[in-house]
Specification:
This protein has about 280 residues and is of the alpha+beta class. The protein is built from 5 helices and 17 strands. The protein has one domain: Creatine Amidinohydrolase (Alpha-Beta Complex), CATH 3.90.230. It binds 2-amino-4-trifluoromethylsulfanyl-butyric acid and cobalt (II) ion. 2-amino-4-trifluoromethylsulfanyl-butyric acid (MF3) binds next to strand 6.
């Protein structure tokens, strides 16, 4: 069903998205353990490919962009190190003690009609011992993602989510930057769908949150500037001031019962409960 161009999922479709989300969760927790000093980013990408194959799932990212005349994305993960914000291409780069590495991953699981449904999530991993202010950047970014998730409710607006993310980042003494050129998004039978979910904005504005809507909520926060540039590889987005960046993302829906984080193994239960937010998974 579609309302104002938004794809609203039936329960059976949400359950297929949950299966995609669980593949995403499995890949990201495996890659967290592999993101050690001395590992190459290509090794992480290969581990993600192996899990996709083992689970019979497809990649949301591999080949992405070809339909829009862009260079097709060549990997199943985006791995962005330090001043790289998003869309870093895995390769021969060796991870170093003290790096932060943002890993973004999307999986597709087919329903029984052969229609594919997407899950999309990102985490920032600390490689070995990391400077305190850098570790803090990742915590602040993750916290702002949860603030955004917690602002999602039936009858609320996308702007509520945007505003909650922005306020959460702004609540810290350090003047962090919020990346504005890239946003969260609707997700479902395609990875990127309406509506956009900006990481800044005004509460009460934008499309309404309704049952069956699925959103990828994904703040990108930097230690300083908000400017971005794309490298010669056509994909890697970096900060223009060289400041380091963090990226956290989950695919989330709001059922009659409450929030359901499709890309976390526990559906978000632990964190939502800790925050006094309603946890509303569908039974399968
Ligand atoms: N997962 C990213 C997002 O959150 C997009 C990845 S771009 C791709 O929107 F080219 F790798 F697909
Ligand atoms: Co996304």
């Amino acid at each position: 069903m579609r309302a104002k161009g938004l794809e609203l999922k039936r329960p059976d479709q949400l359950l297929t998205m949950r299966r995609a989300g669980l593949v995403v969760a499995e890949v990201l927790s495996t890659l967290r353990d592999l993101a050690r000093p001395g590992a190459t980013t290509a090794e992480l990408d290969q581990a993600a490919r192996d899990i996709l194959a083992a689970r019979g799932a497809g990649s949301s990212f591999l080949g992405y962009g070809a339909d829009w005349g862009m260079a097709p994305y060549p990997a199943v993960t985006c791995i962005s190190v330090n001043e790289e914000i998003v869309h870093g291409i895995p390769g021969t780069r060796v991870l170093d003690e003290g790096d932060i590495v943002s890993v973004d991953f999307g999986a597709i699981v087919d329903d029984d009609r052969g229609r594919g449904w997407h899950g999309d999530a990102a985490r920032t991993f600390l490689v070995g011992q990391v400077e305190d202010d850098v570790a803090e950047l990742s915590r602040v970014t993750e916290e702002s993602m949860w603030a955004g998730i917690g602002a999602m409710r039936l009858g609320g607006r996308i702007g509520d989510i945007s505003h909650a993310i922005e306020s959460s980042v702004a609540a810290h003494r350090r003047p962090y930057g919020i990346v504005r050129e890239y946003t969260g998004h609707g997700i479902g039978s395609q990875m990127h769908m309406s509506p956009d979910v900006p990481n800044h904005g005004r509460a009460g504005r934008g499309p309404k949150v309704v049952e069956g809507l699925c959103l990828a909520i994904e703040p990108m926060v930097t230690m300083k500037g908000e400017g971005t540039a794309v490298l010669d590889d056509d994909w890697t987005v970096v900060t223009t001031d060289g400041s380091w960046a963090s990226h956290w993302e989950n695919t989330v829906t709001f059922t009659k019962q409450g929030l359901w984080v499709l890309t976390l193994e526990d559906g978000g239960e632990a964190e939502l409960t800790r925050r006094g937010l309603p946890f509303g998974p569908l039974a399968d």
